[in-house]
UniProtKB/TrEMBL annotation:
Organism domain of life: Bacteria
GO CC annotation: membrane
Domain EamA, residue spans: 140-273
Assigned keywords, A-Z: Membrane, Transmembrane, Transmembrane helix
One Pfam family linked to the record: EamA
Biological source species: Curtobacterium flaccumfaciens pv. flaccumfaciens
Subcellular location(s) per record: Membrane
Protein's name according to its UniProt entry: EamA family transporter
């Protein structure tokens, strides 16, 4: 892995996440959207717990609260985005979801240049709002907006947990909490689907690896060998990669307005990432 360029590792991680999501969507008819999210979270949590085996015996109350809060955000993010996938294209859903971390970045700025990125992101939102998906599938858009809010919450809580709990134990416990969040809503449909088609366990095992285990490992390797700024810029390609996965796996095309909206949000995300680096006084290049 040391010979593989770090940016390629980061891009592979993003492709893996969106490919896993697209594959999961192909089985919504068998297990439902929430059932699919539940299967992904259950298998991912079990695999990570077995591999990492978090040591929680001496955790403080504050550490537990942080991990639980992170898990609630993670569970909501997964369930809501899968509900969104059920009615709108993956590329559109992920573009809307990306507004969560983007808004979080913009909240902490007072620079006029960053206001321009906010305007560009807003233009993307407006274009999505007048596009065919938003007009005909309001529910899917609402679910994606809720996922965006959960993603912003996940970022805030992840910083807290990362500072309070050493290693990856906090993340593993949060995965277990996310799994528990999804169970009341998706367990029945997931079990019914697996009983009818046991092979779905293998499918969602692959989805869990593609969407959780593999990306996490690749991102860790990438971040060890590349600046956070570059990683952030590459992450901004998420909506485009999601749209490509939707097109290849699900034959989901986007309208011209939706494609332009995706480009606006992606450009705004890149701009905010680079601007944040400048505010910290680091080099841009």
């Amino acid at each position: 892995m040391n010979r593989v360029p770090a940016p390629l590792l980061a891009l592979t991680a993003m492709v893996s996440v969106q490919l896993g999501a697209a594959i999961a969507k192909t089985h919504f008819d068998e297990v439902g959207a929430v059932g699919a999210a539940t299967l992904r979270l259950v298998i991912g949590a079990v695999v990570l717990a077995l591999v990492v085996r978090p040591r929680v015996r001496h955790w403080t109350r504050a550490q537990w609260l942080g991990a639980v809060g992170l898990g609630l955000a993670l569970g909501g993010m997964n369930v809501f985005i899968y509900l969104s996938f059920a009615s709108i294209p993956i590329g559109v859903a992920v573009t809307i979801e990306f507004l969560g971390p983007l808004a979080l970045s913009l909240v902490h700025t007072r620079r006029w240049r960053d206001a321009l990125w906010a305007v560009l992101a807003l233009a993307g939102v407006v274009l999505l709002g007048v596009g065919p998906t938003a007009v005909t599938e309001v529910g899917g858009v609402v679910w994606a907006v809720l996922a965006a809010g959960c993603w912003a919450g996940y970022i805030v809580m992840n910083r807290h947990v990362g500072a309070a709990i050493p290693g990856v134990d906090g993340l593993v416990v949060s995965m277990v909490v996310a799994m528990l969040v999804s169970l009341p809503f998706g367990l029945r449909s997931a079990v019914d689907g697996v009983v009818r088609e046991p092979a779905l366990l293998l499918v969602f095992g692959a989805v869990a690896v593609l969407s959780s285990v593999l990306p996490y490992a690749l991102e860790m390797l990438a971040l060890r060998r590349m600046p956070t700024r570059v990683f952030g810029v590459l992450q901004s390609l998420g909506p485009a990669i999601a749209a490509l996965a939707g097109l290849v796996v699900l034959a989901e095309g986007l309208s011209v307005l939706e494609t332009v909206a995706l480009a606006c949000v992606t450009a705004a995300s890149v701009g905010v990432t680079l601007s944040a680096r400048r505010r910290r006084g680091g080099p841009v290049g």
